[in-house]
């Protein structure tokens, strides 16, 4: 569970997905299971500035999924920010070298 206004970092190459550390970007599916309204979730490469755009929204509090391509950041990491409390599932389905 991610608390409201929380940022979390994910180091993708250290996961069990066998993504090589040389990957330059990830193709992923972000799914949120909010406990109520989720005004927005944003994903961006670690080490970079948080963008002012959303990757997905769940204004009615329903489970929502959205595909995204996110560049690999520092150490292959990706940051996630949620405006409101939610569970976040990141499913990586590919990468770019």
Briefly say what this structure is.
This protein has 97 residues and is mainly beta.
Structural class: mainly beta
Number of strands: 7
- Strand count, sense and closure of the main sheet? 4 strands, antiparallel
**What's the shape?**
globular
Number of domains: 1
Side by side, the strands of the main sheet go: 1-6-3-4
**Whole-angstrom Rg:** 13 Å
Order of helices and strands: EEEEEEE
Q: What would your notes on this structure say?
A:
The chain has 97 residues and is an all-beta fold. It has one domain. It is 0% helix and 54% strand. The protein has no helices and seven strands. The chain has a four-stranded antiparallel sheet with strand order 1-6-3-4, with no helix packed on it. Strands 5-2-7 form a three-stranded antiparallel sheet, with no helix packed on it. It is globular and about 40 Å long.
What attributes characterize this protein structure?
97 residues, four-stranded antiparallel β-sheet, mainly beta, single chain, 54% strand
